[in-house]
Amino acid sequence: MTITRPHGPEGLLTLTQTTSKELGEIAETLHHQTGRCGGFVASYEGEFFNNPAQNKSSAFLNYSIERKELVQSLMAQVSEPRLLSNIVWFSSYPTRFYLSSSGIKAMQDLHQKWAQLVRHLNFAKVELVKHKHFSQPSVVLTFQGVTNDVIVLGGHGDSINKDDDRPNAVSPGADDNASGISVLTEVIHILSQNDYKPQNTIKFMAYAAEEVGLLGSMDISGQYEDQGVNVLGVIQFDGTNYKGSKDLSMVLISDHTNLQQNMFLGSLIDTYLRTPWRYDKCGYACSDSYSWTYRGYPASFPAESRIKEENPRIHTSNDTLELSANTAIHSVNFAKLGLAYVIELDK
Ligand SMILES: [Zn+2]
User: What domains, with CATH codes, occur in the chain?
Assistant: First the structure.
């Protein structure tokens, strides 16, 4: 693959040639050495990672950062107490396992909550999306834009207890992933309170059945692919409230994600959050972002810690707020990043 940056009105200056294996490190080096935010473009020949689908979106999306005033005014409205109360609420179901009755109820209740948040907006709607092979629905909230091009902010709503395979086994999933759903809810809350009317169509997705092989997101992304929907970008929030890496606020997962969009996120973090971050590899299809990558859409996954320092209690009956000192402090930056991402991509 070739890493380039824009040079002249339409030209590209080649910076380096590399293999996709070295991609994460090269991207990180470029970013930190040059101190430049954005401006790099990578072009791939042949397969995109292990992705059987062709990359559908243009490699030349507008990743410039030019809506600072709006982003900063929205970011200032992020509320840690509200993030916390939504984590408390969504982790109060005994389990959100995809086969459990409380897992179905949790998604129905989330549908109600999101509908309530946007009830005054005539360009917004919320749907329960049914899946063919299992009964837990996904929840999709749409801010209809001027165009039908889509920006997706997602996270999974289900939880799992890896030590007990009974459907009703306790799995509060406070970090994984009530915290990601709370971040989405916060971004929805702030956009809707500010009557944000988007240029492109913005979709918030709480996926069903991620923990059992990305079932909900594979289904939805497959439908988008079949319908030829132009997805401009996808961001995944899966675990946002556990500070596992003492020296970092955020980690961008570099495998099974899109390099250009990851660099854009790095620029957003440097511009708006000014907080330390690094790339890390997941090594496997570790979240719903993989489903979108698999379909050929540009997806990113900002994670809460390095993979080797991840929350030791996820997928157990002890994934509670205790490990986050009963606060939502670590999630605040993720909600801010969600706002910066959607506003700066929506042009
Ligand atoms: Zn998760």
Answer: 1-46 (no CATH), 58-345 (3.40.630.10)
* Residue of 28, 175, 176, 219 marked active site: 176
pLDDT digits (tens, 9 = 90+) for 34-93: 333 222 333 333 323 344 456 666 556 899 999 999 999 999 999 999 999 999 999 999
Dihedral angle of Cα 118, 124, 125, 131, to the nearest 10 degrees: -110
Q: Amino acid identity of 172?
A: P
Q: Is the pTM of this model over 0.70?
A: yes
Distances (CA, A) of 160 to 165, 171, 314: 9, 6, 9
For residue 114 the two structure tokens come to 């999101």
What token pair was written down for 263?
Answer: 């660099």
Render pLDDT for 282-318 as a digit per residue (tens, 0 to 9). 887 889 999 999 999 999 999 999 999 999 999 999 9
- Cβ-based neighbours of 110, under 8 Å, separated by 6 or more: 90, 139, 157, 181, 206
Give CA–CA dist 303/310, Å, rounded: 9
Please give the full DSSP string across 132-185, using - where no structure is assigned. SS-SPPEEEEEE--SS--EEEEEEE-----TT--STT--B--IIIIIHHHHHHH
Phi, psi of 21 (to 5 degrees): -60, -40
Q: Half-sphere exposure of residue 163, counting CA atoms within 13 Å on the CB side? A: 9
Which residue has 């929506």 as its token pair? 346
Annotated catalytic residue 211: yes
Active site residue 238: yes
Which of 291, 298, 289, 287 lies closest to 231 in space, CA to CA?
A: 298
CA atoms within 13 A on the CB side of 22: 10
Ion ligand 1 — residues with CB under 5 Å? 176-177, 238
How many angstroms does the Cα of residue 181 sit away from the middle of ligand 1? 10
Give the pairing of strands 299-300 and 124-129.
unpaired
